[in-house]
What we know:
By secondary structure, the chain is of the alpha/beta class. It is about 40% helix and about 20% strand. Helix 14 (about 325-360) packs across helix 16. The two termini are about 15 Å apart.
Amino acid sequence: MVRHGHLSIFKAQNLHKDMQKRWVEIPLKQADLVSKLQQDLQLDEVLCRLLVNRGISSFETAREFFRPDLAHLHDPFLMKDMELAVLRIEKGIAKGEKILIFGDYDVDGTTAVALVYQFFKVIHSEIDFYIPDRYAEGYGISFKGIDFAEANGFSLIIALDCGIKSIDKVAYAQAKGIDFIICDHHLPGDQLPEAVAVLDPKRPDCDYPFKELAGCGIGFKLIQAYSQKNDLPFDNLVAYLDLVAVSIAADIVPVNGENRTLAWYGLKRLNENPCPGMAALMDISGRKEQYSLSDAVFQLGPRINAAGRIADAKNAVQLLISITKEEALAKAKLIELNNEERRGHDSDITEQALAMIGGNASLIKRKSTVVYHEKWHKGVIGIVASRLTETYYRPTVVLTQSNGVVAGSARSVMGFDLYEALSACSELLEQFGGHKYAAGLTMKTENVPAFQERFEEVVAASITEELLTQEIKIDATLRLEQIDGKFFRILNQMEPHGPENMSPVFLSKNVYTYGTASIVGEKHLKLKIRQGDSAYFDCIGFGLASFCEDLNRGLPFDICYSIEENIWKDRRNIQLKIRDIRILA
């Protein structure tokens, strides 16, 4: 065992260097609280360790964690400017003003627009929505959108999941007599737009207790506030929680605090009584028995996003606000075609990019990846950047031509500040924006070769070999005999999983194959394992087929894994999803 700071690090042997990852044991934050929680809850010590590391250290906080309650949602009027926002909407409705619901073209934006539009459409007929074109208008509030509002007589725009930095756009609208209510969850700049109300918990002067709502979550707080002020039943809002849950999943916000409650009830709605649009999307993608946030991320989110990547994100909103099953199914089929086209572009471009790197020895040796092709589809280069990062695990930029300039999408590895690296290349860029792990950028075509070299210099000078090795965070060491029905039942109650409450990963040492390991689907590993005299457990290891030969030699090994339920032909059993393997001999 090697010590690094306060973390215990295990390294896979060189035998499987192509799959080598760092196994990092998460340190216990407050060891003294584990035994107390164990006494209070009468749970396995490992489960109590998981809870303490998630900030749950008493019977009361555990009860709130395991039994989320909509009654525990915060008062929406604690959010700065909420009173002003509700008053302005009330005034607009009373005067019969035309109100435009404006949102971004991604999952968070389109679900937010669908939620707020549907809620106010019941109350007020003079309402419509607007989604900017990804390619013609770009992200956020656009001048074109404001011109549309003016031409069509809208005097109030409610902007969702965008607008916190749109100072010039809001001023432009103000000069035309159009008011704005901003509902955003991104970090503000030094100055706020001169809107009637700016709802954003990340405002430095906002005392709202929970800062990590998604954009759709801010929209939900707005309709919660309006309902509260106008004595409308809270139960009416529950119908929109499936939209909120999908936005939380797709926008990868922390799944703790208020988000955990919204996600828990949202998934309940999604699984029991989804809106027609979500139901059609679930049907067309192959409905699962039970949807998790992970399913929303990988099955529903990409399809909603595909509308804006390939065609028009308005189609996603129209799907989500569909009233009849027939209408929803027609829209879902259209979006599925968009998604199939998106997957084709994604697959083709990823293959081309991997061939570019694989066929060039100097590119393989680099600490960064920058690839460019003028014909690549701009709508999928972010996905391709993510896939390249997964393959080579290093900061990656994918570039293509768009509207006369080179546009790029960048992704980073855990621990490396991509935004800072791009800042060091800013003299070669026309513009860039984003955060530590994902960013967008544009540059002149002639600057591409210089940017490739400069970005590599910056990354190589600051990244460590450790950061270039993928990390697996391990929550606890576990003996297989500890995994029984009660343990698994309590573990399941820790869902929904996401940032700040990830699916727990365990380490079990000195296990061995029970029977014969086999390869399924060319790259995946299927086997049964035991530890000492424990019962055997079925295991699946995606992408771990290269270990099969050694495992069948009878060598002992360590595994890190998560625990899940496998359902096959009405049979249910506990299955270990192996993340990585370390052969011991």
